[in-house]
Amino acid sequence: MGLDLRIPVGTLFALIGALLAAYGGATLGEPGTAPTGVPINLVWGFVLLAFGVAMLALARRARRAPARHASPDARHGPRVT
To answer: What angle do CA 63, 66, 67 make, to 5 degrees?
Structure first.
């Protein structure tokens, strides 16, 4: 019943990344938004979004995996003799 911290962390990073990428895409090409030629808001928005999605995918994979501490007999159910 433990809380998997990857779920809230992944959700937070995915949300912030999506917002930052949307802002970077909306302001793309406006004067002063990319003085070095790299749209930094757009790039880091996608980086944060990718990290958030990776955390959520890892949390989902952990829920699907069988418990490692269970005995081999517990996974197969009770023995019928």
So the answer is: 95
For residue 23, pLDDT beyond 80: yes
Q: Is residue 19 part of a domain?
A: yes
> For residue 40, what pLDDT is reported?
92
In a domain, 50, yes or no: yes
Of 16, 10, 13, give the one whose Cα is nearest residue 63. 10
Select the more confidently predicted residue: 2 or 57.
57
Residue 81 lies in a domain: no
For residue 6, give the nearest of 46, 64, 63 by alpha carbon: 63
- What is the C-alpha separation between 74 and 54, in angstroms, rounded? 31
Residue 42 has which token pair?
């757009």
- Report the distance separating Cα 18 and Cα 24, nearest Å: 10
Residue 70: is its pLDDT beyond 60?
Answer: no
CB distance 45 to 22 below 8 Å: yes
